[in-house]
Amino acid sequence: MMTPQIAAYGSWKSPITADDVFAKFIGLRGIQLDGNNLYWCELRPDGRTVIVCRSSDQQTIDLTPPGYNVRTRVHEYGGGDYLAAGGVVYFSNFTDQKLYRQVPGEEPQPVTHIAGMRYANAILDAIHDRIIVVREDHTTDALQPVNTLVSIGTAGDDDGQILVSGNNFYSTPCLNPEGTRLAWLTWNHPNMPWDGTELWVAELLADGSIGQRTLVAGGKAESIFQPQWSPDGTLYFISDRTGWWNLYRWHEQQAEVEVLCPMEAEFGEPQWKFGMSTYGFASADKLICAYSQKGYYHLASLDTRTLRLHQFTLPYTVLSNIRVADGQVFFIAGSATEPVALVQFDLTTKIIRVLRRSQEITLDSTHCSIAQPIEFPTEQGFTAYGFFYPPRNRDFIGRPEERPPLLVMSHGGPTAATLPLFRYSIQYWTTRGFAVLDVNYTGSSGYGRAYRERLKGQWGIVDVADCVNGARYLVSQRLVDGNRLAITGGSAGGYATLCALTFYQLFSAGASYYGVSDLEALARDTHKFESRYLDGLVGPYPERRDLYLARSPIQHIEQLACPLILIQGLDDPIVPPNQSQMMFDALRNRGLPVAYVTFAGEQHGFVKAENNKRALEAELYFYSRIFKFELAEEIEPVEIENL
């Protein structure tokens, strides 16, 4: 092995290119089982999502023909984009948001016909030859779209019959094995689904209409997740009534619910998207579930009679999208050393098979920086969490007198989480000589309801303080260079970036991807799903307009005194482009180094590999100019004003 070369941090020649990060990456999600067929969705580098089918004879084919893109815009974040049932696939097409019915090998045929309707989270009601689906109606004169549960004939010969209405939001319809009872989740403004939801059950009458309804669990301060009927007709669900999302089941005769294995662990997740699943049934007596503790996931089997929980030994730190059938468990999984993959796990033999990788592993372990969980002190005596990635490249070491620059990553949400998962997007930085801190700031999921709710009324304050204190902690441990600290993030993470640069004088540079700069504008302009989210995070608007102004970086632009790059999709319906444009104009007028990179056709989170590649390289180029290190490769320059 060659002796490592001494070189400035940031200038190391990396074995990872931006193409490795994005052009060779396939997004995996949406696992479904139908008979002996396995289905899933793949987000391809060109931005198109297709449904893939793997048959019982191990043959894998793309079902979605060219010209179709499987993606719903319900809640804008989507999920639950398709249904595979009875050998037929029903899917939402991104371009027109209509539902299509597709028999494998044939051209898709529209099932819905009215423009302005969106659909998600469909299930099959075989008895009545229809699908039951969440519909979001943008055709009414109401101030916001109207969400309902509707039924639509599988032949596409009706415009949809409303089954359940009256609340702001609906999700997760599910039928019992006999097809005679329907369960669903619902919630109202200003709640988000992780704040509080209700679980309802109703009889389905012979004509398919809804009969007597029963409220099973939930409320304004109890979040219910993933109701599901077991093979013997018992209704199971996940609730956070104890402060942790744990498993429960409903005893209808006694009109009570039973907790199954109370733990300080999260069996549920924040419902940003439809179709999420953390458990399934191998039989009426055996439930297979995933749960997380301090960011690390585990797979286990629960005996529904004895309530004994048995944990499997698997080489994964992250698990999602659990589906179970015929002694097999299918899920999306990854680890600190491997990117996510579609995995099959045999419950009898314990054999693991990787069916599809999001990308091939091309990085040698000697280049790989592995997530190190850290806990650090933050405001008011609390503790915050994150994962630290030191720089690593077998061919280089830093100069003896230097410490590496630090890139603090702030995830979106803010009620989301970062996970200890191998990501080329992090290794891109660490192999070039950057240290990375990926922060699970106050409000992140995975650490219990109390940790999530500490963000209530404090968004833009405690989450930002956690990012700042994480950087300070690493500086105090002499692991990074306190004079070369940068912060980056998208959406809520972009807001944290802008707040950190505005209200603290710690960071030397930052990158905001479609970040919020004006809370008041966001409260007025954003989409229905999040239109009252800020009531809990900040305060009711306009009654507490003072808080919105106090926490909006654009209102305190004179305090922001370091270089910034802004990256924005021009078709973003969640954080409109004017949020970034205002920051760019203000900083340019003040004479600060600032860059603005935009992408036509992209929304909230970019889907095209070429645009993601350009954004990542632009960010690296920006830091190279600000921190004054030479790049080891040619990168298309970014115009930086006032530099």
Summary tags:
eight-stranded mixed β-sheet, alpha+beta
Write the layout of secondary structure elements.
Elements: E1 5-6, H1 18-23, E2 27-34, E3 37-43, E4 49-54, E5 60-62, E6 82-85, E7 88-92, E8 99-102, E9 109-110, E10 117-125, E11 130-137, E12 146-153, E13 161-164, E14 169-175, E15 181-187, E16 198-204, E17 210-218, E18 224-229, E19 235-239, E20 246-251, E21 256-259, E22 279-283, E23 286-293, E24 296-303, E25 309-311, E26 318-325, E27 328-334, E28 341-346, E29 352-357, E30 372-377, E31 383-389, E32 396-397, E33 406-410, H2 424-430, E34 435-440, H3 449-453, H4 462-476, E35 485-490, H5 492-503, E36 509-513, H6 519-525, H7 533-537, H8 545-550, E37 564-569, H9 578-590, E38 594-599, H10 609-627
Parallel strand pairs: 1-32, 33-34, 33-35, 35-36, 36-37, 37-38
Antiparallel strand pairs: 2-3, 3-4, 4-5, 6-7, 7-8, 8-9, 10-11, 11-12, 12-13, 14-15, 15-16, 16-17, 18-19, 19-20, 20-21, 22-23, 23-24, 24-25, 26-27, 27-28, 28-29, 30-31, 31-34
Please sum up the structure shown:
The protein has 643 residues and is an alpha+beta fold. The protein is built from ten helices and 38 strands.
